[in-house]
Each structure stands twice: as C-alpha cells, then as structure tokens.
Amino acid sequence: MLEPKTLQSRFNTAVHYAEYVALAKPNERAGWDSFAARVHLTPAQVALAKSFARRINVLVISGTWCGDCVQQCPILAAIAATHPANASDPHAPGIDLRFIERDAHLDFADHFQICGGRRVPVAIFMNEDFDFVSLLGDKTLARLRRQAATALGANCPLPGAPVPTDEVAAVTTCWLDEFERVALLLRLSAKLRQRHGD
C-alpha cells in the first residue's frame, strides 16, 4: 500500500465534487446532473453521517465518461455533503471527499486495480493522517447483485438503461454502510482515541 505522504500528496491535487463534475464534457454532464437529482438520503441516513466522530478523507479515482461513476459518485457527494470537513482543522470530524480523473493519473490508479483492471470508481478511505483504511470500488454489492441478475438472467438491459429507484436507494445504503464501517474503525482506533482523548 502507498505511504500516507503519497496518498496525501495525491489527495491535495484532487478536486471537490462540483469542480470534478465541471470537467465533464457537455454530453457527459447531463448524465451527472440528472442522476444527482435522483439521490436522496433519508433523515436517518443524514443523522448517521452527521454522527461520525472522526475525519474521513476519501479520494475517488473516477472517469467523467464512466456510467458507473455517473451512477455512484453523486451518492458519495450526497453523503459527504451531510458532514463536510473543516478545511482549517485537519483533525476535526467530517468528510473530505475529492476526485481525480483516472486517465490523467494512471501511475496512481495502477496501485488500486481491482480484479487486474483499472476500474472506476474506486474510493480510497483514509484517516486524518492519510493512513489507508479501506477501499471500495467498481460497484457496491447492491449494484453487483442487480447487474448479475440482469446480465446473467433472462433480461439484459440495454446500455444506458435507467437505474430503478430501488437500486439507487440500495446502492446509497451500501456506500453509507462503508462510510459507517470506516467511521467506526476510526472511532475505535487506539492511536486516534489517544490523540483525541476519548
């Protein structure tokens, strides 16, 4: 795994969600905006994300051209927006979510291949010191289940087919589960508990 200083250096060159989506070509941008409008967290999900007691730094390797990114990165942005990190205090609780374009950072992306390929999106979760904590990428379990059911079953949707509302909700839950898992790992970290006195 890459050293924290390498992860931090790449994180510092990455951009926030709005800046990232602005990099999309006009024909790509419509998909991002349309899908973002479909992402809704429940009040319980918002309360959960706001309860995270540690800073979570998340670097997403993405592609503005990628359908899986269009259908997952807005979910990450919605989760992060519930509990934004304080830019002036790197140890304060919150979520700092940033994005890099895979094809412009192949040297970095190659360290995070999944199943031998340069998959996107890949979310790298780090603590406040930029120690690696977790990685979730390509697709969540809910998305893989739906894809397997359609691709391996009797019905195979056309490329670009609409994503059902229940799938959007299930994928949102999967991503939030991973954020919560990371949050609990950080909350229980002996190093961080000593630092924060809790």
Question: Could you explain the architecture of this structure?
Answer:
By secondary structure, this protein is of the alpha+beta class. The protein has a single domain, classed as Glutaredoxin, CATH 3.40.30.10. It is 47% helix and 14% strand. The protein contains ten helices and four strands; from the N terminus they run ααααβααβαββααα. The protein has helices at residues 4-13, 17-22, 26-36, 43-50, 67-70, 73-81, 106-109, 141-151, 165-187, 190-196; strands spanning 55-62, 94-101, 122-126, 132-137. The protein has a four-stranded mixed beta sheet, with helices on both faces.
SSE diagram, text form:
Elements: H1 4-13, H2 17-22, H3 26-36, H4 43-50, E1 55-62, H5 67-70, H6 73-81, E2 94-101, H7 106-109, E3 122-126, E4 132-137, H8 141-151, H9 165-187, H10 190-196
Parallel strand pairs: 1-2
Antiparallel strand pairs: 1-3, 3-4
Helix pairs in contact: 8-9
Keywords summarizing the entry:
single chain; 198 residues; alpha+beta; Glutaredoxin; 4-stranded mixed β-sheet; 10 helices; 47% helix; globular
Alpha carbon gyration radius? 17 Å
Lateral arrangement of strands in the main beta sheet: 2-1-3-4
Kindly report how far apart the N and C termini lie.
Answer: 29 Å
- The CATH homologous superfamily is called Glutaredoxin
The overall number of domains is 1
The percentage helix is 40-55%
E-strand count: 4
- Helix-strand pattern: HHHHEHHEHEEHHH
CATH class: Alpha Beta
* Shape descriptor: globular
Number of helices: 10
Unreliable sequence segments: none
Strand content of the residues, in percent?
A: 5-15%
The helix-and-strand class reads alpha+beta
Most strands sheet: 4 strands, mixed
CATH architecture: 3-Layer(aba) Sandwich
Overall average residue pLDDT: 94
